[in-house]
Design goal:
This protein has 230 residues and is of the alpha/beta class. It has two domains: 145 residues, Rossmann fold, CATH 3.40.50.2300; 57 residues, Winged helix-like DNA-binding domain superfamily/Winged helix DNA-binding domain (Arc Repressor Mutant, subunit A, Orthogonal Bundle), CATH 1.10.10. The chain contains eleven helices and six strands. A six-stranded parallel sheet has the order 2-1-3-4-5-6, with helices on both faces. Helix 4 links the parallel strand 4 and strand 5. It starts with a strand and ends in an 18-residue tail after the last helix.
């Protein structure tokens, strides 16, 4: 039996949480394992109930007593370091370019807008892409973020991460981070930015396109042993 994708949700609007749960639990491959309304619940909940994908609102209060928004840009790298297999999808009403870039730079795997009904109707499919290490954006968020990246070439560090990914296609984010001697969130950021620049959504497609463009070492041709001589 295939292991289900475990999803945790942090959003302080119960009706929104209910909508996510309704959509996700239609898919037999997905299980919602935890829902939270306050930022202070996030770390202890994930310690107790691990998740593969976290749906994260950016404007949730810290607690019932402290209504200030919890520090998402501080929390995302900490969560990814503590939970190397966790993938974070931000779902927000905010479409500011600076926030989108900051969230993605912190290590999130996608940014979807709450009013993007077309993509939210397929939330289960989005979660599957995120769980497999891919990235997902609402078109508006993608366009906003791509403006920052469109004029940039792939950096040496991004190419290094892609080269390692090509050499070790089954390596986890944590394993790649150890080879690069950086944190898990840094690896996610390097790869997600490379995906944007290459206009792809996952690691395999990024490797293929980087090879096609001659940016990393191509596949070795098949070497067949000549068995005609005895």
């Amino acid at each position: 039996m295939t292991k289900k994708i475990r999803v945790a949700i942090l959003d302080d609007h119960q009706s929104i949480v209910d909508g996510y749960v309704y959509r996700l639990e239609k898919d037999p491959q997905i299980e919602v394992t935890a829902t939270m309304a306050f930022g202070e619940e996030l770390e202890p909940t994930l310690e107790k109930t691990p998740a593969d994908v976290l749906l994260l609102d950016v404007n949730v209060p810290i607690s019932s007593e402290n209504r200030n928004p919890y520090p998402i840009l501080h929390s995302i790298p900490k969560l990814l370091q503590a939970h190397p297999d966790l993938n974070i999808l931000v779902i927000s009403m905010h479409a500011e370019r600076g926030l989108i870039r900051a969230v993605m730079d912190a290590g999130a795997s996608g940014y979807i807008l709450k009013d993007d009904q077309a993509i939210l109707k397929n939330l289960g499919s989005v979660v599957k892409v995120i769980a497999e290490g891919g990235v997902q954006y609402s078109q508006v968020a993608h366009d906003q973020y791509a403006r920052y990246l469109s004029e940039e070439l792939l950096t040496p560090r991004q190419l290094e991460a892609l080269s390692l990914s090509a050499a070790y296609p089954d390596a986890t984010t944590s394993e790649l981070a150890k080879k690069l001697n950086v944190g898990n969130s840094t690896v996610r950021n390097l790869l997600s930015n490379a995906y944007i620049k290459l206009d792809v959504h996952n690691r395999a497609a990024a490797i293929a396109k980087a090879r096609q463009k001659g940016l990393i070492t191509p596949n070795q041709p098949d070497h067949r042993i000549d068995e005609s001589t005895h």
